[in-house]
Amino acid sequence: MSLENVKELLSNFGWEYKISGNDDVMYSPNYKEILKEEVYQNIYKKDDFYFKRKVKFIKLDNIEYKIEYLEDVTKYIEFIISLKKDKLTGLYTREELESYVSRLNRSSIIVLCDIDDFKKVNDTYGHQIGDQVLTLLGTIIRENIRKNDFAGRYGGEEFLVIFDTNKIDLVKQRIDKINKEFKLRSGKLKLTFSAGISIYKGDKKITETIKDSDVALYHAKRNGKNRSVVYDASLEETLKKITN
Description:
This protein has 2 domains: about 5-75, no CATH class; about 85-244, Reverse transcriptase/Diguanylate cyclase domain (Alpha-Beta Plaits). The chain contains 9 helices and 11 strands. The protein has helices spanning about 5-10, 30-35, 75-85, 95-105, 120-125, 125-145, 170-185, 205-220, 235-244, and strands spanning about 15-20, 25, 40, 45, 50-60, 65-70, 110-115, 150-155, 160-165, 195-200, 230. The chain is elongated.
């Protein structure tokens, strides 16, 4: 096998590659560009494609060449990601949410959403329609968050969204926009959700911040539903009075 054969082989496989011996012999222009965005150890992403960096050595005419190449592993990565996604909503599973939360180490806004009167939808129209409702809200959430944000199905008709920002007013605006779109796109059902919003600053456990969002969600439900409430400490006192 000649060096030209090796180049042809790599080209036929669609690999981005670099071959070097004593000097650089072949340098694919996109090789370094792809290597800029490492998403996991030796896994790189460019646009919607994933590549794995690999290294091999071959000997041709008594010269040893090192071949660095990027193998397209997009289908494999998509399969792995699909295992972490809830089948109905397309959002991450509760397990993936908990894994993400355990690694979170920066200021974030935590939003807990719960579809209003969801049981009534299932009782009136059946679980198939109920499933379609969950799919719809999951789709709308995905369409309205950025790639640095994280959203998952927290359980039943509850959704947890983690916004990679500390601007709580902007997040409230975004959540209210999602709610209006949900009502519009649910047609004659005119469905809405209630949401509790809190900010994680790293000054306490994130599980406690999620509880804060849950307290705010409780107040959103109690005060008429179809609204989002931002957590503050006074809500705790109100809750104690109600439950005592």
